[in-house]
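re: ur question from earlier - yeah i can do the single chain one, its not a big deal. heres the input i used so u can compare w yours
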Amino acid sequence: MGKTETLDRSQLEQAIVKALDNNKFCSLGTVEGGKPKVRYMALFNDGMNIHLATDRKTHKVEELKDNPNAYLLLGYEVGGTKEVLEVEATVQVTADEGLRKQVWNESLKKWFSGPDDPDYVILDVNPTRIEYVGQQMERQVWTK
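and the output i got, formated as tokens:
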């Protein structure tokens, strides 16, 4: 089992989507005043389309408006699949009604009244580079 396997682009994308599907939390890194700032976020995905829900009045929204570059780290959780994704991305803060309804779920009721809450916004993550490490595989890189 010590053998490493190299995936083609399609297989790599499938493995990335599986890792996104299996890991519902990530660390989101932004830049504040030239310094990194990291926090845990619930992750929502539709294939390789990654979304994070947040309040429009949070520091991360201000940080992303000043500098849309971000970094996500997910995986290797206890009991999880042990895959790791490191995602370099740009992030757009959006109040797109369709996206807000797509991402909405009951767990968000702790913070928002519903998908029409004016403070509820989506961080639309646009990956430019993803490093993937599978259980038995060497590090592989996907680029847009």
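The longest strand covers residues 120-133. not sure if urs matches, ping me
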